[in-house]
C-alpha cells in the first residue's frame, strides 16, 4: 500500500497543541447560554468588547441588504473606499505626524492572517521573532503554522514590563540566538499591551526601537486596542500611536515599521474577521502584502458593509465614547472585586482583560477535586503542572473559562 505523507510543516502543526486553542475547544463544546444552556461554560477568557454589542448590532442591521457588486470579486487588499475609511479613522483619532495614505493600507481577514502574512514577508523558515512576555497567546500559531518562523518570548519581569530597562533582556536573548547560529528578523510589540492592558511610555518605545535599529530588525506595532484606552487620569501613560511621532526617524528607520489594527477589539467585531496593516514608508513591503492579500480575502459584502459602518463618523464617535465609558465602569467593578478578595492584579488602562494571580484558595479547591494534593502542599508546590490541572478543572467543572497564564508565555504559575 502506498504511504501518503503530509508535509513537515503539517506535521509540526499537528504536534503543536496551543493551550489557548485547547481552552477554546473546551469552551465551544459546551458554551453557556442563559436561555438554552444555563449549565454551560461561561466565557471569561476571550477579549471581546461586549459592552457595545447592542449599538453595533443595531447599526449593522440598518445597513443590511445585498447588492449586485456583492456577488463579484472585490479588491483582495481592500476596496478603495474601505481603505480610505481605515486611513481616515487613524487620521481622525490617532494624530499621525503625516496623514495616513489609503495606499499604505492592506486589509486581511483578521489580524491573525495579517500577522501570518507579515511574518512570511520578512522571515525565512526558522527565523526568530522576539516578543515581550507575557504576550498575546496565539502568536506562536500565527507565526509558525504557515511562515514557519519562531515566535520567541522574552521573559520580562512584571515590574519592568513598561520600563526602558527591559532592553537588557532582549539583548541577552538575541545574543543567545546568535551564538546558536539563529537569525532574528522582527521585534513584535503590542501597544496597548496584551495581556497587561497598559500603554508603553514613549521613552520605553524609544529604547526598544533603538535596540531594533541596532540589530537591523523590523518592528511590528500591533495597536489593535488603540481606541479602547479608557483611563486617562494623571499618572497613567497615555497611548500614542507610533505613527504620531514627529521624530520617529531619530530612533529607527521608518521603513522597518509595520502598524496593525482591525475591527475585532475596538469595535466589538471579533466575528467579522477584518484586520489591516499600515506600512507608509516601505513600498516594497506594501506591494508584497498586497500580493499576499488574496490569501486573506474577505467577502465583498463584508467590505461594503464595514465601509458604510466606518463612514458614519458621528456614529463611530458616539460608539467609541460609549465603549470607553463602559470599559472604565467594568474595569472598576473588576478591580473592586480583586481588592475586596485580596487578589493580586496588574492595574490597567486599556483593553478588555486583567492580568491577575489565581487565589490559592481557588487552586486548592481544584487540587482537592482532582485528588492530587492536600491544601498545605498546594501552598508549597504551585507548579506549572498543577496550574494546568487547575485550569482544566475550573473550565470543565466550575464551568468558567479563563486561560492559564502559561498560554501567554508566563513563566510564573498562578
Quick overview of this protein structure:
The chain has 414 residues and is α/β, with parallel strands linked by helices. 41% of the residues lie in helices and 10% in strands.
Total helical elements = 14
Residue windows where pLDDT falls under 50 for at least 5 positions: none
Largest sheet: 7 strands, mixed
What's the number of extended β-strand segments?
Answer: 9
| N-to-C order of helices and strands | HHEHHEHEHEHEHEEEHHHHHHE
Instruction: Choose one word for the global shape.
Output: globular
| Structural class computed from helices and strand pairing | alpha/beta
Strands across the major sheet, in which order? 2-8-7-6-5-3-4
- Using only C-alpha atoms, the radius of gyration works out to 22 Å
Span between termini: 50 Å
- DSSP strand content: 5-15%
Percent range of helical residues: 40-55%
Mean pLDDT over the full residue set:
91
What's the arrangement of secondary structure elements?
Layout: H1 8-15, H2 19-29, E1 42-43, H3 53-62, H4 80-93, E2 105-108, H5 111-122, E3 128-133, H6 139-144, E4 150-155, H7 167-179, E5 184-190, H8 202-214, E6 218-222, E7 257-262, E8 275-278, H9 283-292, H10 300-311, H11 313-340, H12 360-370, H13 375-380, H14 384-398, E9 400-401
Parallel strand pairs: 1-9, 3-4, 3-5, 5-6, 6-7
Antiparallel strand pairs: 2-8, 7-8
Describe the structure.
The chain is α/β, with parallel strands linked by helices. It contains 14 helices and 9 strands. The protein has helices spanning 8-15, 19-29, 53-62, 80-93, 111-122, 139-144, 167-179, 202-214, 283-292, 300-311, 313-340, 360-370, 375-380, 384-398, and strands at residues 42-43, 105-108, 128-133, 150-155, 184-190, 218-222, 257-262, 275-278, 400-401. It has a 7-stranded mixed β-sheet, sandwiched between helices. Strands 1-9 form a two-stranded parallel ribbon. β5, α8 and β6 form a beta-alpha-beta unit. α4 packs parallel to α10 (300-311). The longest helix is centred in the C-terminal third of the chain and has 28 residues, at 313-340. The protein is globular, with a radius of gyration of 22 Å. The N and C termini lie far apart (50 Å).
